[in-house]
Amino acid sequence: MSGRLSCRMYASKFPEVDDLVMVNVRQIAEMGAYVQLLEYDNIEGMILLSELSRRRIRSIQKLIRVGKNEVVVVLRVDKEKGYIDLSKRRVSATDIAKCEERYNKSKAVHSIMSTVAKKENKDMEALYEQLAWPLYAKYGHAYDAFKVALNEPEKVFEGLDIPESTKEELLNNIKRRLTPQPIKIRADIEVTCFDYEGIDAIKTAFKEAEAVSLPEVPIRVKLVAPPLYVMITNALDKQLGIDTMEKAIQVLEESIKKSNGNMVTKMSPKAVTEADDMELDQLLARIDKENAEVSGDDDDSGSDADIHTVGPMRAARIFVTDLKHHHILGKVASLKVDLFGSLALTGIGHGTPDAILMGMEGESPVTVESSTIQSRKKAIGQRCALTLDSTRRIAFDPAKDLVYHFFESLPQHPNGMRFCVFDEQGDLLATNEYFSIGGGFVVNDRTQLAHGDNAFYMEDTSKTSPATPEAETILVTAEKLADEIVSSGNEPSIKVSNEKLNAVKAAVLAAATNKPKVIP
C-alpha cells in the first residue's frame, strides 16, 4: 500500500518570522485574504487588509486575486494554534525575485521526489527525511545537490542510507529533468553583393562564417528571402554561443566586403524563444507558399511577374515624372526606396529592385533593353549613383538606400513601395507610396511636396465618396489598357484571365473613389 504523497518541502514544519514564502490566494474576506503556503504542505495563513499595500486601498481586487501566487513575508507564527500572519506590502522587488528563484528550485525537487515516492511506493515525508532534507542541510538546497549528482552521484549520496533501487530511480529522474538543455541563439542579417560573381562571393562568405563553429557551438546560415538570412546555433553555454556567433558575423562581414558586398545586422545574436521560432517558421511558410504560387503553370502565372517588375518599374517612372512636373527634379540629391510585404520578401528573386532602378532612370517595360539591366545595375552599385530620368545624377547606394521591410506591410495593400527624394542638406523634397495590384497596374496618391517638418504625406483614407466622373474615366482607361495588354505582342508573357481583370477593375474603381492615380 502506497504511503502519503503530499509533504512540506523543508524540514521545518513552519516558516520562521521574516522568512519569504510563496502562497496561493484561496479566499478574500472582510479582514483580509486567506492563503495557502505552497512550500509548507498548503497550511493556511492570512494577509491582513492593512498588510496588502502601503497605499490607500481603492479596490482589493486590483491588489490580490483568488488563485494567484504571491510572494509574502512572515510576520507572526503561532506554532501551537497554527496561525500564520503574513504581509504583502513589506516585500520588495528584490525579495520577490529571490523567493521565486528558491521556490522554482524547490518545486523541481518536489516533483522529482513525488515521482520517486510513487514509483517506489514510499511515503513522501519519509523519503524527504531519508534523502532530500539531509541534502538541503549539506548543500544549502537539494536542487544544487541534484545538479552535482548528474556527474558525481557517489559523492552526493555518500553517507545516505537509501536502497539501491531508490537511488537508481532518483538518478534517472534527475537526468531526465535537470540535464541542461541547449539554448537556441539566432541573428538576422542582410547580405548583398552586386558584383558579377556576387552569388559565389556570398556563398564563400557563409562558408567562412560557418568555419568559425566550435564542436559545442555549430554555426549554420539559413536563407529566409534574399537578402535576409538567419544565423543559428545551439549551445549549452549561452555566452559562449553569442560570442562565437558575433565572431562568425565579423568574419562574414570582412569576407563579403572584400568582394565589394555589404552586410547589415538586423538582429544581433540573442537567445530566442519558441515564439520567435514560430514567427520565423510562419515567415518561411509564407514565402514558400508565395514561391509555389509564382512557379505554378496556371493561366494567371504571368500576373505575378507584372506585380513584381512591370508595376514597380512604371511606379518609379511615374514618380520621376511627377518630380519633373513639380519642377524639383533639379534639386534632388539622393533617393531612398522602401519595399514592403511581398515586394520585400520575394522581390529580389523576381527582379523588383532592378525594375525600380530602370524606372527611376526613365525606362518603361516597353522600352527597356533587358540584356543591359544587369550591367546597368552593377554600374549603379559600383558608382553608388543613378541618373534620374537619364538627366539628373544623384547619390544612391543600393546596399543602404534600398530598404526591405520583411515583417511589415502598408495597410492599403501587401505589394507596397515608398519613394523619397532629398536635397543636398538631406531634407525631404517629395515622397509617395505606390501599390502594384497586378496586370501591370499601379495605384498611387499624387506625389506630395514636403513642408517644414518633412513629415510623410498620408492621405486620410477614412473619407470616402461615391465614384466620380473622373473615377469612371480612369476605369474606362484601365479597361482599355488591360484589353491592349492581353492582345499586345510587345509583352507576350502577360496573361490576364477575366477573373483577374475584373479584380483589377474593382481595385482601380475602389482606389479611384479616393482620387488616387491609376498609372498604366
Which structural traits does this protein have?
single chain, alpha+beta, OB fold (Dihydrolipoamide Acetyltransferase, E2P), Alpha-Beta Plaits, 60s Ribosomal Protein L30, Chain: A, 3 domains, five-stranded mixed β-barrel
Descriptive account of the structure:
The protein folds into 3 domains: 1-91, OB fold (Dihydrolipoamide Acetyltransferase, E2P) (Beta Barrel); 183-272, EIF_2_alpha (Alpha-Beta Plaits, 2-Layer Sandwich); 301-519, 60s Ribosomal Protein L30, Chain: A. Strand 1 (20-28) and strand 2 (32-37) form a beta hairpin. By secondary structure, the protein is of the alpha+beta class. The longest helix has 28 residues, at 93-120. Helices cover 43% and strands 22% of the residues. It has 17 helices and 18 strands. Residues 294-302, 451-480, 482-497 and 511-520 have low confidence and may be disordered. InterPro entries: ASB_dom_sf, NA-bd_OB-fold, S1_domain, S1_IF2_alpha, Ser_deHydtase_bsu, TIF2_asu_C, TIF2_asu_middle_sf, TIF_2_asu. Keywords: 4Fe-4S, Gluconeogenesis, Initiation factor, Iron, Iron-sulfur, Lyase, Metal-binding, Protein biosynthesis. GO terms for molecular function: 4 iron, 4 sulfur cluster binding; L-serine ammonia-lyase activity; metal ion binding; ribosome binding; RNA binding; translation initiation factor activity. Belongs to the eIF-2-alpha family.
